[in-house]
Amino acid sequence: MTTSATSDGGRSGAASGELRLGRRFRIFQAAVLSSDLADGVYRVAVPLLALQLTHSALAISAVGVAMRMPWLLVTLPAGVVVDRYHPHRVLRAASWLRMPLVLLLAAAAFTGHLSVWALALGAFAVGAAGTVVDIAAQSLVPRLVDGAALPRANASLQSVQTVMAQFLGPALGGVVAALGAGGGIGSATVLYVVTLLVLGGLRMPGDGPAAEVRGGSPKSVLADLREGLGHFRSRRDLLHLAGVTACVNLAYAAAITILPLWAIDPGRLGLPSWAYGVLLAAPAVGGVLAGRFAAKALTRFGGGSVLRVCAPLVGACYMALAIPHVAAAAVALTVSGALLMAINVMSVTYRQTSIPPQLFGRVNAAYRWIIWGVLPLGSLVAGLLADAFGVAWVFLCTGGLALATGLLRAPRLTEDTAARTPADSPKAPSGS
After folding, report:
1. What is the mean pLDDT of residues 65-76?
2. Torsion angle in degrees (nearest 10) through CA of 355, 357, 362, 368
3. Which run of H or of E encompasses 78?
4. How far apart are CA 83 and CA 65, in angstroms?
């Protein structure tokens, strides 16, 4: 099979000027909708369940670490797996594995047999499966739509994920978790089952028993990983893109970590706790509003221009949070959400169209390992700066870092490379 499968009506639509995403993409998007809603519920339900089981700060933090640790330990091996097998097959297998793990956690919670350490172990296992799901899903998109439609497809997916994971999921998770032990995780289990049912309707070339896969020994797995990391290190554009994005993510993590101390009374903004939730939704509002325009901006101006404008402005938005006024904070968070949406659509599309398909899973995993790995560092930096100099300096320093990095280090992305479709790139081995 070719590395870029034409979506239903895809190329003919593109030829006539209409970029159709096709039926297969819409099925995939429905699965993403259900999965992200489940993720949003789950990420709220697990910490609340931990709080019900213990009031030990150490134990509760251990559960939080267990939820996030798979991004450091599983991301790179997941990239190797996605490159060795068809990403659709990996996506289904990881989704099937995740569902019973969540079901076991819910059953143990409902029956009163769940300890906080068992919750931590289960959270790590679920997170590991979810990490593979995320890597496989991003690798699958170029096989579902034509290259010219990738900006629109990615913008559509990012909008859905923002609504589900940042809006509806956390709200639903808080409500159902209040109904009793295991309620939130039980609801997530139901949604993961829906995800599997939807994925069952997605048929891809290469899914059949005749599909070739590239197995290998553990030594060859390490060789594959070295190959992907070698390609990543050789790409100055990807290294610089990862560096700029990592600085933006560090500033984001620092701002969100310390924002409650700044916003909630007796903080400088003086908000009641219920109003803080509304303020925290502002980035999601900006992201959803910008989703429709992000693809058009990328198509018209190119990825390099989008990054050079948006990255410094995100840093400026985080610096503006130091203004002790609610309206300023709301505007800064809303605008930052819109800018981050544009950066995300640009970054995903650029990687999907510039990385050779046979290396995409591994190189993409290396990229995401870096940009997600800085999140705990951002939280740590926020605490150190706030303790030493005050909360406002967290926004000024980390936002200033993102602004300066965006201005000085934003890569000059090769627009002809960014515009190249996966079909124009080197062909991957069949079934990889």
Report:
1. 86
2. 50
3. helix 75-84
4. 28
